[in-house]
Fold this protein.
Amino acid sequence: MKQWNIGNTTIRNPKRIKDGLELLKEFEGKSWDYDLQREFYDEANKRGIMKSDGSRVKEKELHARKWVSCLNQLGLARAWKSEEKGPVEITDVGNQLVIDEITFEEAMLRQLDFESLVLDFIKIDELLQKNIQQLSKEVLESKIKEIQDLFSDDKYKQSVERWLKFGKDVLENLKQKEKGKCPICYTDISEKLDSLLDNYKGYFDVSYENFIKELKQLIDDISTNLESLEKYKINAGKLEKIKIKYEKLLGDLSFEKFDFTSVESDLAELADRLKLKNDNVQNDFSKPDNIESNIGTLNVSLTAFQKLKNSILKLLESKKLKTHTIEGDIRKTYNKIIILEFNKKDKVGSLAKYISNKERINVIENSKKEGLPFWNEKLLEELKKIKAESKSISKYLNKMGINHFDVDINEGKQDENIIIKYKNSSNEINKLKNCLSDGEKTALAFAYFLSKFENEIDTEEKIKESVVVIDDPISSLDDNRLYSTAHLIWTTLEEIKQLIVLSHNFLFLKFFNSFYAGKANCVFIDQNRICELPDELKNFETPYFYMLRNIIDFLDQDNQAVTYNEAKKYLPNFIRRVLETFLSFKFSRIVNRDGGHRSPGLTEFNDNIDNTDMEDAVKKELKEKIIEINRIADVHSHGNPHHTQENFYISKTDLKTLAQKALNVIEIMDNLHKTCFVKT
């Protein structure tokens, strides 16, 4: 009799798969060793799950492993020969199949997945177009060219780099083993070994080695994508069979076939070009012409397959007949009707209203035209739009210098659908407040704005008619990102009708003046008035002189421009910042007492004052003034506006005293500084 097992029938006999799974469950918790394999085989034959006329011991073990391997691949069980992978275990889906909670088709559908393929085409282009001029020194580049010119055959030309690298390894081994003779001609080269190896260093340095590692990693990633593509092709075939089987039940759900050939061909061609690049760094290569659009089309189909799978699962689950549930619902409904009739509640149409409401609830729960399924479908469509936008968000984050995480959408959790994916980590965090700094949150919000602009203002006509207002997009960003953010705004929105940028950071705003060749219209909001930019801000990248001018003007009795009611809102903060800047420059102090990145506070300069050659009385006066200024100004500088208005009142007299003390500190330390400023 011919031996047959699950591999001969695959899913054509679901009953046998379930019977085999029930048998394997009896072995759960035990190690899947040779003894257990033979025991499984004998019991399966006894129950008619397998058929055999008697096999040798090794054949029994082999047939048992084949049978159970299929259960592993279907995701119904985990049974491995290796003890490190644990004992025999039936998965949750397998257990549901065993106790008849799901059909076999449902079990199969739960194992199908269709994740999008993701390739970093910017990185691919960069690697393919890198050349030897970027990776090696001139001396070895010249040597490679010289050797290549000896050959006319391209095959030999492309082998020169590998030959040179092998030559480097030979020389290093000769040096380590203290053998100074050439292994080919036996010439004594011991005195030349060091200089020869030095010539190689320019080519085989860390940057070159890293480049080769990146190439190999990318080749491995493409190989993995090809394996995934093969799996998706098989899964699509299984999905189509189930769709055909339940055609009448599934109604208007459609299955659109996808030809995987072009994507397979593109990925294989890309892998070949990367391998050629690995063999010959000097040559420029490019990716296949249509690979990006082909993979984009593939991902659209994969998303459709995933959606169809979920829809089929939902329908199959809804069509299952659970008699105990049906009977319970009938009894509950009958009891409600009896109570209504018994209590004479239906005289005013209560029973009719009850039935009408039940029908309305049914419409809300099940109608594809106006019920929850309709709105869920709408929600999924919106999530897909956001998912497309998330790719643009990651692109703009990269342009702002933030490339250690990506943004994605979790369609499975509609209430927590934003995922932060950190690179080089398997962690996914969907609570933004727990994982991002304030600066990263600002950058993420701004990247989202640019993504919305790119995806919604999608025609040349719309772009040219657009007026864009951007309010302080660099809040909490460090200075290193100011230029990249300003440059991104300029290049992204260069063609729009009008751009308005608001910010408290004058250095950031000055970039736009240079971008637009000095033609940017710069205005200033002062006490709720729009006016020309003050002279103190036109020629400098710091607001220091502007703040100092405000302090001096407030103390000027003849100057009516600066009023107490307005000055009390900002002047304490100006006083603190002016003194911190002045003292930092005066003492060349750029870090705080703890050595951190925060700028030094006012009282931290007392140590510096003690080290000067001023008289002790002057030192004491200076330190007392600074302590007093810090005590008042610090409170007014760091509370929120509501807190400040309620709890920190400062009178006009006290504010003038505070301002005068600040100027006194500057006068004592450097009277010429103040004198020159007042004269100008």
Q: What stands out?
A: Residues 1-12, 638-647 have pLDDT under 50 and may be disordered. Residues 206-245 form the longest helix (40 residues).
